[in-house]
């Protein structure tokens, strides 16, 4: 027999589903884990005594934060033994005008990489406080810690992020323009044009996860990075001939990015980090096939924080 309030419960859950995914993805850095966590949250919500739930949004956020924290603790070891640099799983986020700058920044590859260096508790507290605007008291309840412990974790996390992620990105239209120029230069094999767009000490991080051949250490310096990308249009890559390779400009993780595809599969995504002068300071290249499913599915995610 169906519970009489089932349609209402589904409606309430559905109303907050995007928010729950947004929280889980920022906490876990993978779309697959975030989707699983939201699914687990639905199971818990379905079983809960909802007559006692005064604020469904806060209640659901609490469930999803807790589930994500558990998952984060159990996946840490896997990430420590990962082959080469570990990068988050990219997601398609549509046009970059759609997101508020802070929302987009908080889901950027560069920010997710920094969040990866926090402890699970610090990461949860930082995301809930800085990105979603929850109070220390609300977070304390969500992560089942004292308010004092949460304040301390928030302070540590903020200092840590600030030290590694200075807030001076070039404006959005400039980022888009540089990405378009990079795209044209890379697909046209123009090393000099690429050099002009890159900071002298630009760093390229490539994540093949041991599944496909990639640099196991960061590639540093404009000349080396430019040569790497200029070769894209001239050499066979992962068994794909240049003529069969398709490159496309899309919105990835809240900013402009590039998806490289073969006829049958997505091969890699490339996203950028920009300095104050608008030049590219870091490039994140995800080629591990296990991490390209969300992009290959073509799902565009809403990364809003409301």
Automatic annotation (TrEMBL):
It comes from the Bacteria. Residues 110-160 form the RNA polymerase sigma factor 70 region 4 type domain. Residues 13-76 form the RNA polymerase sigma-70 region domain. Gene3D superfamilies: 1.10.1740.10, 3.10.450.50, Winged helix-like DNA-binding domain superfamily/Winged helix DNA-binding domain. InterPro entries: ECF_Sigma-70_Domain, NTF2-like_dom_sf, RNA_pol_sigma-70_dom, RNA_pol_sigma-70_ECF, RNA_pol_sigma70_r2, RNA_pol_sigma70_r4_t2, RNA_pol_sigma_r2, RNA_pol_sigma_r3/r4-like. It holds the Pfam family Sigma70_r4_2. Keywords: Sigma factor, Transcription, Transcription regulation. Interacts transiently with the RNA polymerase catalytic core formed by RpoA, RpoB, RpoC and RpoZ (2 alpha, 1 beta, 1 beta' and 1 omega subunit) to form the RNA polymerase holoenzyme that can initiate transcription. Belongs to the sigma-70 factor family. ECF subfamily. This is RNA polymerase sigma-70 factor. It comes from Streptomyces atrovirens.
């Amino acid at each position: 027999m169906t519970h009489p309030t089932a349609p209402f419960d589904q409606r309430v859950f559905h109303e907050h589903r995007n928010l729950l995914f947004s929280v889980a993805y920022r906490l876990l850095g993978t779309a697959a884990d975030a989707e699983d966590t939201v699914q687990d949250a639905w199971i818990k919500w379905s079983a809960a005594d909802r007559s006692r739930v005064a604020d469904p949004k806060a209640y659901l956020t609490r469930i999803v934060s807790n589930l994500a924290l558990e998952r984060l603790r159990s996946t840490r070891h896997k990430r420590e033994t990962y082959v080469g640099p570990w990068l988050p799983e990219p997601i398609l986020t549509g046009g970059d005008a759609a997101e508020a700058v802070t929302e987009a920044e908080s889901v950027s590859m560069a920010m997710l990489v920094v969040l990866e260096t926090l402890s699970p508790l610090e990461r949860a507290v930082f995301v809930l406080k800085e990105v979603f605007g929850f109070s220390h008291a609300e977070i304390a309840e969500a992560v089942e810690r004292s308010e004092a412990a949460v304040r301390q974790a928030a302070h540590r996390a903020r200092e840590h992020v600030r030290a590694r992620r200075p807030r001076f990105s070039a404006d959005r239209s400039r980022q888009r323009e540089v990405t378009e120029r990079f795209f044209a230069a890379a697909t046209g094999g123009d090393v000099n044009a690429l050099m002009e767009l890159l900071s002298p000490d630009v760093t390229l991080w490539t994540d093949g996860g041991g599944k496909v051949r990639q640099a196991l250490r960061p590639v540093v310096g404009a000349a080396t990075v430019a040569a790497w990308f200029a070769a894209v249009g001239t050499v066979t890559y992962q068994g794909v001939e240049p003529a069969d390779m398709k490159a496309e400009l899309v919105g990835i993780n809240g900013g402009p990015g590039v998806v490289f595809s073969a006829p049958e599969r997505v091969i890699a995504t490339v996203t950028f980090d920009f300095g104050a002068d608008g030049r590219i300071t870091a490039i994140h290249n995800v080629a591990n096939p296990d991490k390209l499913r969300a992009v290959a599915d073509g799902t565009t995610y809403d990364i809003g924080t409301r």
